[in-house]
């Protein structure tokens, strides 16, 4: 009976140890698309809409179409456009191309 208990304990410890090693290995591998998570202007604009509309509401739709420019092959700058002469500013957002991190969100006044 004691022999079965020891074998079971060894198996449990071994399974725990192997599962820990396996899950740590999985967490350390990060996959990134070759062109980054925001590969083009269309994607940058769609991400911008998803960020800006919840913050500023439907009024942001008045600034469409948005214009996206890639700076230094690493950061997308997306700005709203003004359809009429106004003193108010436009939405502005910076998105890192490689991982889609939002670096800056503002709205001019």
Counted by DSSP, the helix tally is: 2
Percent in helix: 25-40%
Query: Strand count, sense and closure of the main sheet?
Result: 4 strands, antiparallel
Mean pLDDT: 81
What is the general shape? elongated
Domain module count: 2
The total count of strands amounts to 4
Structural class: alpha+beta
How far the N terminus sits from the C terminus, by CA atoms, comes to 79 Å
* Strand coverage percent: 15-25%
- Strand adjacency order, main sheet: 1-2-3-4
What does this entry look like structurally?
The protein is of the alpha+beta class and 109 residues long. The protein contains two helices and four strands. It folds into two domains: 1-30; 41-107. The chain has a four-stranded antiparallel β-sheet, covered by helices on one side. The radius of gyration is 25 Å and the shape is elongated. It starts with a helix and ends with a strand. 15% of the residues are buried. The model has no long low-confidence stretch (mean pLDDT 81).
Tags for this model:
alpha+beta; 2 domains; 4 strands; four-stranded antiparallel β-sheet; 39% helix; 109 residues; 20% strand
Task: Give the topology, please.
Elements: H1 2-28, H2 41-56, E1 67-71, E2 75-79, E3 91-96, E4 102-107
Antiparallel strand pairs: 1-2, 2-3, 3-4
What is the compact description of this entry?
Strands 1-2-3-4 form a four-stranded antiparallel sheet, covered by helices on one side. The protein contains two helices and four strands; from the N terminus they run H-H-E-E-E-E.
